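Module 6 notes. Inverse folding takes a fixed backbone as the condition and produces residue identities as the prediction. Think of it as a translation problem where the source language is geometry and the target language is the twenty amino acids. Below is one complete input and output pair. Work through it position by position during the lab.
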């Protein structure tokens, strides 16, 4: 977990190129995705929380919406801070609260992505097993959701409580932490990295197994697998594609970046500067996840898709009255 510490990095590098990227380019990019994500996730929340939690998948997707909205709440604070407003007091808020909320939301969302992949695997590949019937229960999905939020809060919230030291002369987020806070920061960071890699391996296994199962099923019943396969692939791999695009680059990049921050690591100032730019760029890709998750909702959840299309159809009919007999029904889309 890398807290925002741009000023210190720029001073070490002795260059203002970092400030151009972090204080001019990134704020604009974060503002753009914040605006789009607010619309998309607002629409997703409006649809999801008007439909009942009739399946485990819907329960997990609703929790993903909550995680995305919490994550989205942290973006304006980062934008204002990167633009140089708010002074040290805003930096303190970012270090103690919004940075913690950002990573809490991100890794909670990753957890729900892995739970969705596991639920899909048992429903499609192991549909006749006793475990599948248990995982399909809404009550079990709600219990897993509460457990996921509880575990993530247990590991993340102490980072807020233990960031309690007086404001240092040379500001850095780590300097605000107590000795126990620095140790807990390290523990929670390793825990989050473990969550990511376990989720990644689980998702690759589950969706590879699902794809093979769907392919064998299409061949066994001698159906035209081209169109059916395309529909299945869109549903199956939308979540995996978003996961790989948003989160894999950051977690690959953070390994050399973290090593470069250790004293005596042997990295040149230029190498540290390049790694810092890569870390900030890949972290932005992780933040972009809040704009791409609605794609997952559309392809994976029929309830969400039909509700959205129904709302769009009703709006079009109101705008084109009278239009009896000219509209497409949901079943045809």
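Target side of the pair, the amino acids:
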């Amino acid at each position: 977990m890398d807290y925002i510490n741009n000023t210190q990095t720029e001073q070490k590098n002795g260059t203002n190129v970092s400030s151009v990227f972090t204080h001019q380019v990134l704020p604009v990019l974060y503002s753009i995705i914040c605006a789009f994500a607010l619309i998309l996730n607002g629409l997703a929340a409006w649809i999801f929380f008007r439909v009942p939690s009739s399946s485990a998948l819907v329960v997990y997707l609703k929790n993903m919406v909550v995680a995305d909205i919490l994550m989205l709440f942290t973006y304006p604070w980062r934008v204002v801070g990167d633009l140089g407003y708010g002074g040290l007091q805003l930096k303190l808020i970012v270090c103690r609260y919004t940075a913690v909320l950002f990573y809490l939301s991100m890794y909670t969302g990753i957890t729900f992505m892995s739970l969705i992949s596991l639920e899909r695997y048992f429903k499609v590949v192991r549909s006749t097993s006793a475990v599948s019937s248990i995982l399909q229960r809404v009550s079990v999905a709600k219990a897993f959701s509460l457990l996921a939020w509880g575990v993530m809060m247990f590991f993340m919230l102490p980072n807020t409580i233990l960031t309690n030291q007086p404001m240092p002369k040379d500001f850095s987020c780590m300097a605000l932490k107590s000795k126990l806070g620095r140790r807990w920061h390290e523990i929670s960071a390793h825990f989050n990295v473990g969550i990511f890699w376990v989720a990644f391996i689980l998702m690759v296994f589950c969706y590879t197994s699902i794809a093979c199962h769907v392919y064998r099923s299409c061949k066994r019943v001698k159906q035209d697998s081209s169109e059916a396969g395309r529909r299945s692939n869109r549903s199956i791999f939308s979540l995996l594609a978003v996961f790989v695009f948003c989160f894999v680059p950051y977690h690959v990049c953070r390994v050399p970046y973290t090593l470069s921050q250790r004293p005596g690591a042997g990295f040149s100032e230029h190498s540290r500067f390049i790694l810092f730019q890569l870390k900030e760029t890949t972290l932005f890709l992780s933040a972009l996840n809040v704009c791409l998750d609605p794609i997952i909702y559309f392809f994976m959840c029929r309830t969400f898709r039909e509700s959205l299309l129904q709302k769009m159809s009703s709006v079009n009919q109101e705008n084109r009255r009278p239009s009896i007999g000219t509209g497409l029904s949901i079943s045809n889309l």
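Reference fact for the lab report: The chain has twelve helices and no strands.
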